[in-house]
Amino acid sequence: MPVLVEGTMDAPAVSLAGDEWAGLACCGAAITPEQALIARSHSQTGTVLVALDGDLGGQAGAMRSLPVLSEAFDEVLFARLPNKQDPAALHAAGRGLLRDVLGSARPLADFAIEVELAKWSNVLDHLSGQVNAVRAIAPLVASLPTGRVAGEITRLARVVHLDEHIVSREVLAAVGSRGPTRSRQRAVRRTGADLEINVPHSYRDL
């Protein structure tokens, strides 16, 4: 599996951590579409793992990479490194630390959704905050693996206290803007019997 890292010393450290990983250095925290395509050429499973440095810059870079990588990969995973650590430093520390971090990777969209939700936590007690939070998070939900979209819509609706049909409409709109596969569209539609319901005027104006 290709693992995207920041530094040239991080890439061999990842490759040495286990045969299942191949480190690819991006020379920074910004992952470009060209780099995504190169990484895709090294993936036989359609999955990529992002393991940028464990600082705010690395986390922000990982989140920015999600739409870019989602265009090339079916699944984008994220390994959250300890604060102010990079893969090379973890490998040098020994004791299988880097392998443990890579092995505990989870979908990058999950991490991005948590971060985005936290930004809106203080305004989820009124309608405009709820709807705007959903609109901000909908593209992240749309980037999840197809089989997880419906479940995340249900969870998001519960967290923001909105009707599931409203959340479904926003995610479906985000899916459409990404040029989705039919399977992803069907996954969103399964969350409600009728996504063509009329949204109350108050929602549309927010």
TrEMBL record:
Pfam families registered for this protein in UniProt: Toprim_2 (PF13155)
Instruction: Tell me the protein's name.
Output: Toprim domain-containing protein
| Protein species of origin | Kribbella sindirgiensis
Q: Which SUPFAM superfamilies match?
A: DNA primase core
Name one process (GO BP) from the record: DNA replication, synthesis of primer
Q: Which domain of life is it from?
A: Bacteria
Q: Give the GO cellular component terms, alphabetically.
A: cytoplasm
